[in-house]
Amino acid sequence: xxxxxxxxxxxxxxxxxxxxxxxxxxxxxxxxxxxxxxxxxxxxxxxxxxxxxxxxxxxxxxxxxxxxxxxxxxxxxxxxxxxxxxxxxxxxxxxxxxxxxxxxxxxxxxxxxxxxxxxxxxxxxxxxxxxxxxxxxxxxxxxxxxxxxxxxxxxxxxxxxxxxxxxxxxxxxxxxxxxxxxxxxxxxxxxxxxxxxxxxxxxxxxxxxxxxxxxxxxxxxxxxxxxxxxxxxxxxxxxxxxxxxxxxxxxxxxxxxxxxxxxxxxxxxxxxxxxxxxxxxxxxxxxxxxxxxxxxxxxxxxxxxxxxxxxxxxxxxxxxxxxxxxxxxxxxxxxxxxxxxxxxxxxxxxxxxxxxxxxxxxxxxxxxxxxxxxxxxxxxxxxxxxxxxxxxxxxxxxxxxxxxxxxxxxxxxxxxxxxxxxxxxxxxxxxxxxxxxxxxxxxxxxxxxxxxxxxxxxxxxxxxx
Length: 465
Description:
Layout: H1 12-26, H2 35-49, H3 54-62, H4 64-78, H5 89-106, E1 112-118, H6 124-136, E2 144-151, H7 154-162, E3 164-165, E4 182-185, E5 188-191, H8 193-196, E6 199-203, E7 221-226, H9 235-248, E8 249-257, E9 272-277, E10 280-285, H10 337-352, H11 356-369, H12 374-386, H13 390-403, H14 408-420, H15 425-438, H16 454-464
């Protein structure tokens, strides 16, 4: 007979440890009136995972290989995760009348637009942005427009990728009845594939994951949405997140925060100008230099979805000997090493300002000056994705793997390229990377990742697998 799960009362000795663990990993405020919600989330977590002892519970929350998944499961129970299309109509009015017209004026030369929906829940917000851009700014069809949507909850992200919604998601708009964007099947509204492919969903923990990040493509952004997230967080955590957002935005970039969340304590006036637009308050990054201290490692880039045939140039062996890697002739380190480092540093600065073409020239110069520069190949892969060139991205990553067959970042990114191209080889790439990572100590740092440890890397790979 199976023992009944321990009750909250029986967990008195473990309760504060659990709460502190969750607050540390998520930045959420779980004291006072929110303890009741935490207790309910805990009961659901224990029930869903059939945990019957204190030892089982502690191991799930402390084991480096399983902690991340456990935390994310808790978050899905602790947060509402409920939103709807075009929520807060005045924000979208300001986006249409003020923000995007200003960006069009600023970015007319390079014709790029980068948007990040941080804490995207089930996807209604980033899809609303994509619909507004297509509907109200037809001229942007000729631009390179990218929308990144991130959340800490894997469950929410899966729903967002599925892009199937019920009537409650349209309670303040009739956009669900527009056949240009949705098709109705029984009680579900299915988003048009054209709009769905303009948004890239990705797991990201705003407390300790990577941003700004070059490979994650969270530098040089034009707009960040951070709405209805700070209400769950400790004030000091929200302040830290907003400071990092300032480094993600290009000078003149825009930050939109929930109207009930914004306060003078949330942001620094050295970083942002506060602009009142109708009933909405907008934050615009000042045209001043903000120190670019790169926080933990990039997790994965946003690889453009593309459809390849079975003869796709992306297929082939990757790493672990590099049988199919492009030919690279190894040679001793040369005096050009200093030039390579300087070029990559300048490239990072240009990317932070959204100047992709100048960054590409510098990265190409670095790779030419020092062909053994793995970082140059990794950055080249990210920029090839910017151009929608998965073949070139894969070639750059294979060069990196030829130089170091155990380069975990190259394995991870190549796996993402292959998966984005519909190539089944990606599963094997991820398995190879997992095997390498599991041979490392959990706290050991991953090279070229700006500080991500092997334990976190394993969590990311397990989620992708």
